[in-house]
Amino acid sequence: MKIVIENLNKNPANALRRCGYHFERQHTATGEISAARNLGAGGFPRFHAYLKVVGSDLHINLHLDQKRPIYRGTSAHGGEYEGKLLEQEADRIKSTLCL
Prior knowledge:
The protein is of the alpha+beta class and 99 residues long. 21% of the residues lie in helices and 35% in strands.
């Protein structure tokens, strides 16, 4: 699910921390910041967000990781990219960041 926060005047990593996300890493190739919000013990399930600043806007690509990758060296994780839970989380992020 894609979310755009227009005219964000905050540091993107700090903005998502306000929403309960923790910084994971910055991808050097794409410039995207990876952040997650754990929903269960052991780190999964979790909301996983990729953030990128485009001009003054914050673009967030959000999905739900249901479980940890099974095979070493793969990125398959049983992710969900749409649905009611993601819509609710997107609304929560928007209401927190657009105050």
